[in-house]
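REQUEST FORM: STRUCTURE PREDICTION
Request ID: SP-0412
Submitted by: Lab K.M.
Chain count: 1
Length (residues): 192
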Amino acid sequence: MPAWQADGKVRLSQEKEDGWPKLLDIYFEDNQTIAYSFEEAITIEKTGMYYLWFVICDEYLSAATVRGQTTWKNPMGYLPGMMYPHIKFFGVMSLLYMTLAIGWMLLYARHWQDVFALQHWITAVVALGMMEMSTWYFDYVNFNATGFRPYITTLYAVFLGCVRKTISRVLVLVVSMGFGVVLPTWAPFRTR
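STATUS: Completed
RESULT:
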C-alpha cells in the first residue's frame, strides 16, 4: 500500500524500521532540465549484496540520462570483497617466484659452463612470472588504497602474462618435439 508524503506525492516504497532500503528523492525545480543530487554517504553495517537503482517513475522523463559517480569503500579498502583475497594471492606468488628466481640463478651461476639455450628461455619465463605477479600485487594494493585503477598498470600486467605464457608454451612444444631435438644442444651428451 503506498505511503502518502507530506507534499502530497505518492511514494511506492517506504523505508522499513531498520532504515532500508534507503530512498533518496531528486526533483526537478520549476522548468529546469537538470536536477542535482547532493553527495550522500551511507554507512552499511551488515555484510551482504547491495544494489544502487535509479528509478524514474514519471513517463515524461523516460528519456532522462543519469550521470554521476559512486564510490564504494569496505572497511579494508576500496577493493570489492570478491577481489580482496587477490592481494594476498599475488603477494605470496611474487615471493614464491622471487625464491624460485634466486634458487634458479644460484644453480645457473654454479653450472654456467653446462647451460644450454633452452635454459635461457626458462630463465626468461621465471623472470616474467616474477614481474607479472608483482605488477598484479602492486596494482591491487594501489586500487585498494586509492580507489582508482591505473589503466596502464593493468595492461602491463596482462602483457607480461601473455608473453610469459607464449614463451612457456613454445618451450613445451620444443621439448615435446622429441629427444633428438633437445639432446644435441645439451652439453654433457654432445657427440664428438
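NOTES: The chain has four helices and two strands.
Reviewed by: T.R.
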